[in-house]
Amino acid sequence: MLVVMQQRATAEQIESVMAKIGELDLQAHPIPGSHRTAIGITGNTAAIDPSSLVGLAGVGELIRVTKPYKLASREMQQEDSQVHVGAVCFGPGSFPVIAGPCSIENEAMLMQTAQFLLQHNVSLLRAGAFKPRSSPYSFQGLEYEGLALLDKVRQATGIGIVTEVMDASQVAAVEEVADVLQIGTRNMQNFTLLKRVSQSSTPVLLKRGMSATLEEWLMSAEYVMAGGNRNVILCERGVRTFADHSRNTLDLSVIPPLKELSHLPVIVDPSHATGRRAYVAPMARAALAAGADGLMIEIHPQPDQALSDGAQTLAFEPFEELLKSLTEIAPSQHRTLC
Amino acid sequence: MLVVMQQRATAEQIESVMAKIGELDLQAHPIPGSHRTAIGITGNTAAIDPSSLVGLAGVGELIRVTKPYKLASREMQQEDSQVHVGAVCFGPGSFPVIAGPCSIENEAMLMQTAQFLLQHNVSLLRAGAFKPRSSPYSFQGLEYEGLALLDKVRQATGIGIVTEVMDASQVAAVEEVADVLQIGTRNMQNFTLLKRVSQSSTPVLLKRGMSATLEEWLMSAEYVMAGGNRNVILCERGVRTFADHSRNTLDLSVIPPLKELSHLPVIVDPSHATGRRAYVAPMARAALAAGADGLMIEIHPQPDQALSDGAQTLAFEPFEELLKSLTEIAPSQHRTLC
Amino acid sequence: MLVVMQQRATAEQIESVMAKIGELDLQAHPIPGSHRTAIGITGNTAAIDPSSLVGLAGVGELIRVTKPYKLASREMQQEDSQVHVGAVCFGPGSFPVIAGPCSIENEAMLMQTAQFLLQHNVSLLRAGAFKPRSSPYSFQGLEYEGLALLDKVRQATGIGIVTEVMDASQVAAVEEVADVLQIGTRNMQNFTLLKRVSQSSTPVLLKRGMSATLEEWLMSAEYVMAGGNRNVILCERGVRTFADHSRNTLDLSVIPPLKELSHLPVIVDPSHATGRRAYVAPMARAALAAGADGLMIEIHPQPDQALSDGAQTLAFEPFEELLKSLTEIAPSQHRTLC
Amino acid sequence: MLVVMQQRATAEQIESVMAKIGELDLQAHPIPGSHRTAIGITGNTAAIDPSSLVGLAGVGELIRVTKPYKLASREMQQEDSQVHVGAVCFGPGSFPVIAGPCSIENEAMLMQTAQFLLQHNVSLLRAGAFKPRSSPYSFQGLEYEGLALLDKVRQATGIGIVTEVMDASQVAAVEEVADVLQIGTRNMQNFTLLKRVSQSSTPVLLKRGMSATLEEWLMSAEYVMAGGNRNVILCERGVRTFADHSRNTLDLSVIPPLKELSHLPVIVDPSHATGRRAYVAPMARAALAAGADGLMIEIHPQPDQALSDGAQTLAFEPFEELLKSLTEIAPSQHRTLC
């Protein structure tokens, strides 16, 4: 349920409505808008007597939210969300690109990649310290040592860090070096982890589960938002289907319904979706044209020597060409690359 | 297997190689290129003694084709195919849009749509006379009466006609009015129909089956080409997956591997893929950016009164807006709308 | 819509109700039951004034059928259908097994297989004359010559013949030798073919499309029934999913809902579903335990020399063992093998 | 890699081979068999010089394991594993049924269910204290309070407890009351959790991920086994496909390849797979006939009042009938219900 305050409602009136909601054993979530403030209500709203709220000073109207996700829904918030990460903004008008290697390998490579990105006006570096690997015998990432390297690069260059957190117990350590906490596809419904990052003030990048429906995905975003962290960026990365021509089936067709149903920004990871270097650039361009709010791309100074996922990783030069071609399409979407 | 002739090979030498292939009980398919001619060989090529061909006058080299599809493969023909339909060309550089109602309803509506399209420089009209419907109790199309209406509109306006043929027994009648024979998703492996249209001189639009792999799709194209009709245009229209946010899952990620493996043009039908009017334009733009060679879009003067598939059909005005936005993206793909 | 006649209704009264339905421009389909007759009505029943029928002599009650399939639905006919093929019956109590080679190869092999089957009390032989093959270069079956061989074996041994018909134009020829017309998975929505076999008096085995929903499958059965052929046997043969451990994913879980929604018998083809010899027997036993009404199994005197699908084909001895194990489970399902 | 010891090898020789493996910086996993002992080796085995092991006293032969999963593979251990839980054994010959409510609701209901089960010779109770729920606003289980209730019932009745653990941080508490640690479908690739339960001495029930391939599933089992816990029971619970007639598509066809590739026992959960009460019993019977080693069934004294998943939950009486029908089929599989 949503209480839309009148345009001239005072801060005191808003406070007073929130207090009333608390008295009813429900949670109040203030949603400031450009013209007026709304207050989302979650909890067992079925039992609310609308008259107990509608008569309060400053209240405009009450709207029942019909979707199972509330804070993530377009019903609750009509304006597109803007998630700020340093100087970068995920939302309408801009088109941030996140890039970097699959895993952190060593300091030199990380530093080289960060400098290359900053030279090209890309200010978010992705690189995994904790790596979810299907096999217990595969390289599992540099873990805490990797976090230390990320921190060094961040301090030295000022680049923003996007890195995965695989378990609630790792969140405190990852928060210290990350500008965005990435939740991987296998953890989209790791509810303990979702609840933990919902307590964080760091933005969360929530990858879609390998066979998650749109509703399940938004429900996982709702876990993060319901706990207090509104800075959720969704990330489509391909789903499981019968098709065998690429590793997963990149579901760009999820973007228009997502934009209809939710105000959250959504970016696309064509590297994991396709699993093949040659397919990354066309799918990246398609994502932009389909209405995505950004991209996440795997790059490496020497992809064929990458410790993981080399086959889907771009070298620096083709990445530069990709940026150039995105710049040509971006104006048609009223967006600027960053 | 592919015989690549020398650049200076004469017409007589080419004839002579083809005759030799015939003597070996194999089929020869000449493939003229910009620099030199190649001759595809199909049949039981395992038994060929290469020396029987390689020594013939004018022969450059012999290449074994490793894919199960031969004539459709990039190995056989490195240059992109160009399929000409009247003044329109499906292939690199251009971006034809096919548009029109799902089914033929009456002459007035058809004429109105054709005139609207021609005013906007769109010169191919789609409209179904034979309608494959899941239910025996649903409207099955105007059938032969519909073909007559198509013919009238074609004669009156000069617009090109793209229309579905559902069965081998209908091909002769449809050929008379159609500039492109459309094979629907449910008939992608109707081999009797494929063999029949392979005898036609009219280009074939081959929609991907609802759960066809890339290889199966190209094998169906191969049926048409092996019979002698090289003018095949592929059409992605969404596949069946667990996802429920759109009618089918539009698989744009099939385009880059298709371009890698085959020289055939591929267009996209976002109307049937999404099943929702609001999602058609963003997915059409994404198709262009992903490397598609054209589009097929459902439009109707009054979509809400359409006899079939109204929910996915654009009215004239949003279609005009779509054309405008495609025009903005096309230069980045080195293509011109037509 | 369904008119349920009173228990004591006379043949004349039934006739008279059917005539009245005809006058309303609707189709009447008599459905005799053990206690009383019902009359299914198809066509635009929305416009019917119930009072025009309910007052007629002998009419018990009118029931609106809510499903898009009518004649195939359990609403129209509560008792399980029994489809008779010679002495064999597909329906409750019995469990017919259909067996034989993928394709007809030669007379000797066919005769040997028929005799083996009859010795084991299996009285339906499957064998393909027309073979739907993904590749135009693969063996396409012996076609009309194959039909002649089937006829010979049938005359000589009295075994019943189940064989595929791929196109409407082949139906007349196939009807002459077949006891059951098989519609393959790729043709489940070949509506021209469905309409043609609906005019036949030979029972139809309708395989599920590779990605057909339960409703689409029953709608295809409805095409056959609406045209007048009520003898439809459904056949589950695996669907397309992401899973790669068997060729298709055998969907036994479709059987209970099918039994709930329809009165038609359903059999299972574990050979095409799994694609692997070693998996056929356990899935055949599971089909029986899940409530299937029969099986269709590929066998061959020398599977490793089969012209097609050898990898999924049982030799005679393992087939005998399978029959024995089915006989142990059948009583728990109140069924007898035949 | 696998070292197969000679039949007459002494305990000292085995020790000595394991010590040698340790010196090579590899892990040794002893696998006692009925005739002779084998020693699995994991780690970077590519670098092993076979001659360094093959000459040791008591060594029979060295076998390279070709699958990415090692300890879980049939190559490593040819005999079927037997996982003992109290007096119950998951493995050939027996067919344990695990039953109980979806979530723990209160002590009385739990006690009533346990007593009912024990009267019917069912000695494993399932009931969830921690509930993974798509929505943050749904009932999340009684959590630690629920564990206390499970402990009470276990102490009072002696029934074995199967209950889910959602996060590594909960394992210590769950181990204290559980006889089997259940890992849910959403956590099949929660690698932190898998590593944690690999340190436990309590058997692990590993549900298949919603879109996990057979190989990924066995790789997750390998995580548990590689850490030292060999007592892994696999559980098929339906996968995500396009099919909409049941909640998930129960993939019984995974059982035969699983038995071929692995020695681990596999059970089936038809309740979560189908999501519909009426479909549970036929799919349970099919699982037995397909070769499953047991079942997991949701039951409740009053299903329609269950706090979660009531639609798929059996009342006591239909569960009794299911047990009876399983008893009829079990002998054909050389199994006894327990």
Please, could you describe this protein's structure?
4 copies of one chain form a homotetramer. In chain A, 33% of the residues lie in helices and 19% in strands. Chain A has 338 residues and is α/β, with parallel strands linked by helices. An 8-stranded parallel beta sheet of chain A has the order 14-13-12-11-10-9-8-15. Chain A has a 4-stranded antiparallel beta sheet with strand order 2-3-1-4, covered by helices on one side. In chain A, helix 3 runs parallel beside helix 4 (143-157) and helix 4 (143-157) runs parallel beside helix 5 (171-177). The mean pLDDT of chain A is 94. Chain B binds chain D through residues 211, 240-242, and chain D through 211, 240-242.
Would you summarize the structure shown here?
The structure is a homotetramer of 338-residue chains. Chain A has 338 residues and is α/β, with parallel strands linked by helices.
